[in-house]
Structure formats: C-alpha cells, structure tokens
C-alpha cells in the first residue's frame, strides 16, 4: 500500500513546521531485586540498577528519533515503589535512596541532542517588527530599524542565505532562524539571556531535583 | 535486516539530483521500490520508497551519506522509516 506524496508532505510539515514530537519516553524499572537489609546497601543497589539499566537510554532514544525523523524530547526513568523494597531493611529514613537517585542524575552524562534552549525559549513569527520585540523584551533597537520585521532583520544582517539554526544577536537576546519559506526566515526562536542570579552548579542541582521530583510523582502514581 | 523507508527530496530543480541520490543509494545497497517525482513551480519534489539492507549499510550510514548529497546539491533530503507515515495516515 503506497503512501501518497501529499501524505508524506503532510507528515513532514507536521514534524518540521508544526513541531510534532514524542514528548516523553519512560523506562520503567522494577527495583525489587535491590532488597538489602541495610539502607546504604539498598541505596547503592538502586543506584547501580538504574545506572546499568539506563546506560543506553539516551543514545538509543536519540537513534530511534533520528530513524523515525521525530524528535523525542524527554527521556524519563520511573522506578517501582521504594517503600516496597525498603521494607527489607527496616530503616525509618529512606532519604539515602532518594539521594542515590539524585546522585545518579547529577552524574549522568548530558544528552548529545542539542539543548532546546539553544533553539530559543520562545518562537515568534517573522512578521513581527523589532519595535514590538523591544516593547515586550525591553531590548534596545536602533530608531531607524524599529519598523523592520524579524524576516527583514535576517535579510539585512545575515551575510549568507539563511539556514535553519542561523543566529543573529539583537541587543541582549539572540534570534535563531527556526523555519524558512521562500528563502526567508518565517519563524524565529528567541533565546533570552541566562538568568544571572543562578550560578551554573545551582541550576544543575535544581535540574536534578526537578528530575527527582518527577520520579517521585511517577513512583506515587505506580 | 531489511528496513523499508521513505526518502523525500525537496529543493530547487537542477541537473543531477536523481543521479546523485540514486548513486548514493546504490553505493549503500539500498533498493528503490518506487519513485514519484514532480516539479511544482520550479520546486523539485521526489518521494521514494526504498528498502535498506541494514547488514550491508546501517540506517545511520545511509542517512549520513544522503546528508552529504543534500549539502552538495543544496536540497533537503529526509530519510525516515516507513512506519511513521503508515501510522500517521492509515487506520
């Protein structure tokens, strides 16, 4: 059964322009085999179990995304209820297990896929003018450039034919070409400056904590 | 393992697109099952149904080879497993 070219074009458009993606894939792990009569041992086994089972999660998910041509945005790990396996050790404080999972996410190598932040935090149409952007984001724009649209700005300031991912600075923000049509940029990603109050180690820790919170919500939902 | 995939080429019409694409496919032991090709107001659009012999050339290798062709000819080439389109358009 042949798929019609129109259908193929439609699918490519959904992925390329309308940003269809697979939001999340979840690796569900039973940690029952980690039972141990000592909480530290249990925490270490949980760490090893998660680390071993998920070693190839990110590269494999990225390879599948490439093969199917659909981005997989989040890769998540869910473990079976900790309370169940913790019954084996009789400890009152189960936080070492949480800390072990926390440590796993901090130790984990970063994904090879590009950081979504690099593509811009927000997307806007190329039809918007620089004046509008200046108003919303407080960026400084030359008086005589205020009437230009973002597409015009790319035409004027980019010294080669625009490609997806091409970047241009506008005061403190960076404009990223997200989608092209007829040789012009028609969707622009806005990369806002990083929040200076957050030191990198802190954000890393916060990220880990958020992931941990995700796990807990998963565990609670199992 | 035989993998069925859909290859699509989109770009400005020019000499040698079909030649370059099919040459790359044959060099990677990819069999072409079907080709549909049209030109809509100067835009070259081709879709191919192909079978990739992953023992001879893995999917990723074929994709990488086609990326090079796409860059050389300044056209857009995508290679995706056929299942995606089947899942999207067939009940």
Can you tell me about this structure?
The complex is a heterodimer of chains A (222) and B (91). Chain A has 222 residues and is α+β, with helices and mostly antiparallel strands. Chain A has two domains: 5-112 and 198-221, no CATH class; 121-191, Uridine Diphospho-n-acetylenolpyruvylglucosamine Reductase, domain 3 (2-Layer Sandwich). Chain A is built from eight helices and six strands, in the order αβααβααβααβββα. Chain A has helices at 5-16, 39-53, 57-68, 82-86, 95-107, 130-137, 150-157, 200-221; strands at 22-29, 72-79, 122-125, 167-170, 173-181, 184-191. In chain A, a hairpin with a 2-residue loop joins β4 (167-170) and β5 (173-181). In chain A, α2 (39-53) packs parallel to α5 (95-107) and α5 packs across α8. The radius of gyration of chain A is 23 Å and the shape is elongated. The two termini of chain A are 40 Å apart. Chain B is α+β, with helices and mostly antiparallel strands and 91 residues long. Chain B has one domain: ACT domain (Alpha-Beta Plaits, 2-Layer Sandwich), CATH 3.30.70. Chain B has three helices and four strands; from the N terminus they run βαββαβα. Chain B has a four-stranded antiparallel beta sheet with strand order 2-3-1-4, with helices on both faces. In chain B, a hairpin with a 2-residue loop joins β2 and β3 (43-53). In chain B, α1 packs antiparallel against α2. Chain B is globular. Classes of the chains: A alpha+beta (222), B alpha+beta (91). At the A-B interface, α1 and α3 of A face β2, β3, α2, β4 and α3 of B.
Q: Which stretches of chain A are poorly predicted, pLDDT < 50 over at least 5 residues?
A: 196-202
Name the strands of the widest sheet of chain A in spatial order: 3-6-5-4
CA gyration radius of chain A, whole angstroms: 23 Å
| Cα-based radius of gyration of chain B, to the nearest Å | 13 Å
Largest sheet strand order of chain B: 2-3-1-4
The domain count of chain A comes to 2
User: Count of helical segments of chain A?
Assistant: 8
The helix/strand series of chain A, from N terminus to C terminus, equals HEHHEHHEHHEEEH
CATH superfamily of chain B: ACT domain
| Bulk shape of chain A | elongated
Task: Assign a percent range to the helix content of chain B.
Answer: 25-40%
Output mean pLDDT of chain B.
Answer: 91
Sheet having the most strands of chain A: 4 strands, antiparallel
Report how far apart the termini of chain B are: 26 Å
**Shape estimate of chain B:** globular
